[in-house]
Amino acid sequence: MLGVCAGLIRNKVWDCLHHTKTPINDIDVIYFDTSDTSLETEKQLETELARFLPNQPWSVKNQARMHLKSGFDPFTSSYDGVAHFPEIPTAIAVRLCNNELEIMAPYGLQDLFEMKVKPTPFYQKNTQFYSIYVERIKKKKWDEIWRNLSIES
Amino acid sequence: MINYEKQLKEMMKHDTNIFSILKAVEKLNVNDAWGLCGTYSK
């Protein structure tokens, strides 16, 4: 089963906390399958999702393929993939299971709800991936959208 | 102690757009090793 992760969930929480509503930029969907790591399968899943719910910015990623471009060791599960997202409030995924919402948040939910943006351990200062975190923070300009964020740089 | 998990579930539940997205994703059937659930520390 797949889950929805990252910005969609994070932005929803920040929107609620700021009493605003921002548009959905993309819908990141993840799963983990080492038996089929083809890009084509991810695209096929996006097509299927578009059939269920059209005109949405679907983006499906098999976490078993992500190490090929990220430079990390291969991930062992979706959880491991989410734990390697750049920011702590972004490291979150949810899915429905029998109408119940399941939450995956490797670093907890406190920073997300306290509107603190920090790098996950893999992107902290003195790591090789820190510059990726810094560039993302510069590019995203989240503090211009959600004024109460506290962003570590 | 603040129950953030409960707050998040409430936010998701009351957003029909997000709920539709989650329902669509739930319909897909693929092999998956989701890993641990919950807000555990790694």
Oligomer: heterodimer
> N-to-C terminal Cα separation of chain B, in Å?
21 Å
Weakly predicted, low-confidence segments of chain B? none
Cα-to-Cα separation, first versus last residue of chain A: 35 Å
Derived structural class of chain A: alpha/beta
Describe the main β-sheet of chain A briefly.
Answer: 5 strands, mixed
Largest sheet of chain B: none
**Strand content of the residues of chain B, in percent?**
under 5%
The percent range for helix content of chain B is: 40-55%
Radius of gyration of chain B: 13 Å
Q: What's the mean pLDDT score of chain A?
A: 94
Distinct helical segment count of chain A: 7
Structural class of chain B: mainly alpha
Write the layout of secondary structure elements.
The complex is a heterodimer of chains A (153) and B (42).
Chain A: E1 3-5, H1 7-18, E2 27-31, H2 39-52, E3 58-62, H3 67-70, H4 78-83, E4 93-97, E5 100-104, H5 110-113, E6 116-117, H6 130-140, H7 142-145, E7 150-151
Chain B: H1 4-13, H2 16-27
What does this structure look like?
Chain A is α/β, with parallel strands linked by helices. Chain A has one domain (3-115). Chain A contains 7 helices and 7 strands, in the order βαβαβααββαβααβ. Chain A has helices at 7-18, 39-52, 67-70, 78-83, 110-113, 130-140, 142-145; strands at residues 3-5, 27-31, 58-62, 93-97, 100-104, 116-117, 150-151. In chain A, the strands form 2 sheets. Chain A has a 5-stranded mixed β-sheet with strand order 3-2-1-4-5. In chain A, strand 2, helix 2 (39-52) and strand 3 (58-62) form a beta-alpha-beta unit. The longest helix of chain A has 14 residues, at 39-52. Chain B is mainly alpha-helical and 42 residues long. Chain B has helices at residues 4-13, 16-27. In chain B, 21% of the residues are buried. The interface between A and B is large, with 46 and 35 residues.
